[in-house]
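Okay, is this right?
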Amino acid sequence: MLRQVHRWSGFIFSIMAIVNIVAVILQANAQWLGLLAVLPLLVLLPTGLYMFARPYFARNA
């Protein structure tokens, strides 16, 4: 379940980054559009760190 959340957040982030790049190229960049890509990062960071650290915690338990 956690991997799926992480995977879909990464997909959404990629789409938002592409939309932001296109907006910059078209010079229609808005502040809220740039911040829209930050929202999936708030999900990607804790899920990615947890999946990275989980094997290390399992070894020590």
Notes: The chain has one domain: 2-60. The helical segments are 2-25, 31-36, 38-60. Residues 7 and 44 are 8 Å apart (CA to CA).
